[in-house]
Write a structure and sequence with these properties.
alpha/beta; 2 domains; 301 residues; single chain; 30% helix; six-stranded parallel β-sheet; Rossmann fold; 26% strand
């Protein structure tokens, strides 16, 4: 049986790429709220004895997690052989330790929830901090894909004179990898965060800026505060208006507007989360990752 690829709302384009790559068939599903706010789900095509691939990027996860769990349970109840999840953006990675007494370790709790919901997971550049890998958090096969090669290819084509700037120490892994692949210099700023929107950064000495285009690189843009602070520091140092590149376009509230107003020459993101700034396509990367998982079949309930 060919795999059945089912997109949750807003994930149709990526689902189409996956179905083509794995020789699967697109399946229809209805996901909508009842008037009282509960979720209604229905699978419109046969899934019995098939591998089912659910495609659902997990920005704004509180409104997506329950329909996803119900749809996965429905697929399994209708006889699906295995149910996997493709979540290009994986939420609830922030709270990986107790920063204040009484806080929950929600990254671990969400990992437990998804591990109970699906048989395998494919995601792109999860925001790992103190967890060394997803496999340490998830009880199912969890494949991490890296966007660095496609971001580097975009830079070589569009900003060949780049100097890559990481806005903080947490970005060093992405900045270094992309810089090496693109063949351009890279540096990381020093950051002090006092609150979600109160951030200062400083530029280390020896950053090659003269005659080059600064490119700020990060995995996630959420409030935009870190990149906004970095733009200000670069402009004070006499650099040209920077290009801002991120893997995941979370953009909470008016973050996109604030980033543009701060003086970014351009904001470009990967299409792990649909957004007008999407300019770097990870469709082939994700589809190849799903194909590899389906071919290996390392999962069983």
């Amino acid at each position: 049986m060919r795999p059945r690829v089912i997109a949750l709302p807003g994930n149709d384009a990526l689902a189409g790429s996956i179905a083509t790559r794995v020789g699967g068939e697109l399946g229809g599903a209805t996901v909508r709220p009842f008037p009282d706010g509960e979720s209604y789900v229905r699978i419109d095509d046969r899934v019995e004895d098939r591998d089912v691939v659910l495609v659902c990027t997990l920005d704004r996860p509180n409104e997506k997690a329950v329909p996803l769990r119900l749809l996965a349970a429905t697929a399994r109840d209708l006889g699906a052989r295995h149910v996997g999840l493709v979540a290009p953006y994986l939420a609830y990675m922030r709270q990986d330790r107790r920063f204040a007494p009484g806080e929950g370790l929600t990254s671990s709790y969400f990992a437990r929830l998804l591990s109970e919901t699906v048989d395998w997971l494919v995601t792109v550049d999860p925001h790992l901090h103190r967890h060394p890998s997803l496999e340490m958090m998830y009880a199912i096969p969890a494949r991490t894909l890296h966007a660095a090669p496609v971001v580097a290819a975009w830079l070589r084509a569009h900003v060949p004179d780049a100097t890559l700037i990481g806005p903080d120490a947490e970005s060093v892994q992405w900045v270094t990898a992309i810089g090496e692949l693109a063949g351009v210099p890279s540096r990381v700023l020093e950051k002090v965060r006092r609150g979600p929107r109160d951030v200062t950064v400083s530029l280390p000495t020896g950053v090659p800026l003269h005659g080059r285009t600064p490119v700020l690189i990060d995995d996630i843009v959420s409030t935009g505060s870190t990149m906004i602070a970095a733009i200000g520091e670069l402009r004070r140092a006499g650099a040209a208006a920077p290009v801002c590149v991120a893997v995941h376009a979370v953009f909470a509230g008016d973050a996109a507007e604030r980033l543009a107003a701060a003086g970014a020459a351009r904001v470009v993101t990967c299409n792990t989360i649909p957004h007008p700034s999407n300019g770097i396509d990870v469709g082939k990367l994700v589809a190849d990752g799903v194909a590899a998982v389906l071919e290996s079949q390392p999962f069983a309930r």
